[in-house]
Design brief:
mainly alpha
């Protein structure tokens, strides 16, 4: 039995002076699914950049041959 003090936590009787911060839920709650979503995003991004670079390379090659866009 506790014999020191009043026996009740006085701090619990006082009203709370601050609001507790509740962390925001993530868009995708499961970590493995979140990693999968990021992986898909990066694969699409890398594929798009590669396609853009290949198209620029082909356009430069066409320009060097003397074929403009209108002469395809």
């Amino acid at each position: 039995m506790y014999t020191h003090g009043p026996g009740i936590a006085l701090a619990q009787l006082a009203p709370p002076n601050h609001k507790y911060k509740v962390p925001r839920l993530p868009l995708i709650p499961n970590a493995s699914k979140r990693e999968l979503a990021w992986g898909i995003f990066w694969m699409i991004l890398v594929t798009g950049v590669c396609a853009l670079l290949l198209e620029l390379r082909a356009a430069r090659r066409r320009m060097r041959k003397g074929k403009g866009v209108s002469q395809r």
